[in-house]
Amino acid sequence: MDGKEISFIKNSRDLILKKGAFPAAAGFRLAEFSPEGAMRRVPKRWEAYYVVDGKHRDLVADMRAAADWCEAQLSTIEPRVPIIDIPGDTVID
Q1: CB-CB neighbours of 63 under 10 Å
Q2: Among 53, 77, 51, 73, which residue's Cα sits nearest to residue 62?
Q3: What pLDDT shows up at residue 65?
Q4: DSSP 3-state assignment of 64?
Q5: How many separate domains does the chain show?
Q6: Does 16 fall in a domain?
Q7: What domain range is 43 assigned to?
Q8: Can you count the helices (H) and strands (E) in the chain?
Q9: Other CB atoms closer than 10 Å to residue 89's CB: what's the count?
Q10: Is 39 a member of any domain?
Q11: What does the DSSP 8-state code read for residue 16?
Q12: What are the tens digits of pLDDT across the range 32-65?
């Protein structure tokens, strides 16, 4: 069981718990470089990123992909999980 989603989860956990850091930032972009290397203005937009192997990755997109992956995994096993009635618990559908 290995893919980009679980790798993101494992890597983030290791950085936060073992190294005490998660190299990420947020800001807005006003310009970007074209494939030819020329700078061009773009509409102001906010973005959040984190760093993997010295390269920026879209933090929000990768977090959403990891959450979707977790939801899919939990949905797969949910029918096989026995219902346990613990006093005080409420059932949420």
Answers
A1: 16
A2: 51
A3: 92
A4: helix
A5: 1
A6: yes
A7: 4-77
A8: 2, 3
A9: 8
A10: yes
A11: I
A12: 888 898 998 888 888 899 988 888 899 999 999 9
